[in-house]
Amino acid sequence: MNQDNTTLLFVYNADGTFFASVTDYAHKIVSPETYQCNLCKLTYGNAGMKKEWQIFLETLPYKKEFQHRDEFLRIHPEFADTPLPAIFFLSGKNLYILLEGSVIEKASSLDQLQDMLTKGLEKYRTEST
User: Fold this and answer.
1) What is the pLDDT of residues 19-69, one digit of tens each?
2) In the 8-state DSSP scheme, what is residue 73?
3) Fewest CB atoms less than 10 Å from the CB: which of 4, 36, 45, 75?
4) For the chain, percent helix, then strand, then coil, each to nearest 5?
């Protein structure tokens, strides 16, 4: 697998408009237990991306791209029925689901999410060789 031609695509279950961002920020503060994007909740704090997550991502030998639900669905309408958040693996023009929403929602900590992602990447590498 050529790692130079592969990208991890993180898709949040939140829209990227200014209004949506302000509403999401307030929702995370006022009622974090009901926030609808576990990927956001685990990887971002009130001041931005958590340092531990940022350091972990830097250890992964792939390009990283982050998209909100509305941006992702404009580019990939064929994934409209895919529960979000999700983490995809983009290899060339092929897009594969690495971690689907139901799996990400089971993570109760950043460490669990990192472990899930590491195992998902190991499984993908094994299956693609």
Assistant:
1) 344 445 444 444 455 546 678 788 877 778 889 999 999 999 999 999 999
2) H
3) 4
4) 50, 20, 25
Distance (Å, whole) CA 84 – CA 14? 9
Structure tokens at 62: 């792939």
Angstrom distance (rounded) from CA 99 to CA 116: 8
- Give the fold, CATH level 3, of 3-128: Glutaredoxin (3.40.30)
The string of pLDDT tens digits covering residues 67-96 is 999 999 999 999 999 999 999 999 888 899
Phi (first) and psi of residue 7, to 5 degrees: -135, 135
Amino acid at 11: V
| 92: region left, alpha or beta (phi > 0 left; psi from -120 to 50 alpha) | left
Domain-wise residue ranges, the chain: 3-128
Prediction pTM value:
0.78
Strands (E), 74-116: 86-91, 94-99
d(CA 53, CA 35): 19
